[in-house]
Amino acid sequence: MIKVAPSILAADPINLERDVRRAAEAGCDWLHVDVMDAHFVPNLAYTPDIVRRLKQTFDVPLDVHLMMDHPEILADAFLDAGADILTIHAEIDADIPALLEKIRRHGAHPGIALKPGTPLDAVNAYRDMADLILTMTVEPGFGGQKLDENVIGKMKALRDSGYTGYIEADGGLREDNLQILIDAGLTAAVMGTALFRNEDMPGAIERIHRMNRAG
Ligand code: DX5
Ligand code: ZN
To answer: Ligand 2 centroid vs 208 CA: distance in angstroms?
Structure first.
């Protein structure tokens, strides 16, 4: 069953508890928490304290997406705060295998994210160290963008290459464009705008849970 991960970047920041409770009660599988450093991406978002309070308040696994040039600075803080999945970007200039090992040693699931323009072979050397590969379907930094369909080929190539971990997509996902992603091998859907602007979040999540890979 497809994991549905509402992205709280699309929630109302001054009513975060209300919106997260709505998502949790609607049956979401994970909460996607975007972290931005205003350097890797031209925006700022969420802190270890928010992750800690989410962990203390809700019983939903936290899928934390570090859009940071130096995730090593705060990886321990996010892990100690309760991140269940911690995803770093393949484009950074850091010791990625060491970071992935640290995340796993801490008991969390390591993830690797690729911007739309980054080729799959950027992760070949260590993709089997990642439980999740996030093939971003928009340029990271902002919600509400249009899905880049060129990424679908990357997702299919990754799944066809035998990768058995989660393939997650993030940015511009809606109910009406999910099936083609699922057929390409998607198993985790990050959805911000399409869920938090949806009056019928439980219905949307239930319909997505019924979607399967065709053929
Ligand atoms: C973009 C973020 C996405 C975004 C979701 O950098 O990583 O998680 O919030 O986008 P939408 O609102 O298009 O689902
Ligand atoms: Zn994200």
So the answer is: 19
Report the nearest-CA residue for atom 9 of ligand 1. Answer: 143
pLDDT at 105 over 90: yes
Number of C-beta neighbours around residue 183 at 10 A: 17
Q: The domain containing residue 95 runs over which residues? A: 3-209
- Give the mean model confidence (pLDDT) for residues 135-141: 97
CB 170 near ligand 1, within 6 Å: yes
CATH number at residue 63: 3.20.20.70
Q: What is the average pLDDT across 75-84?
A: 98
Count up the domains in the chain and report the number: 1
3-state secondary structure 130-180: CCEEEEECCCCCCCCCCCCCCHHHHHHHHHHCCCCCEEEEECCCCHHHHHH
Using 50, 70 and 90 to split pLDDT, how confident is the model at 215?
A: low
Cite the active site residues: 34, 170
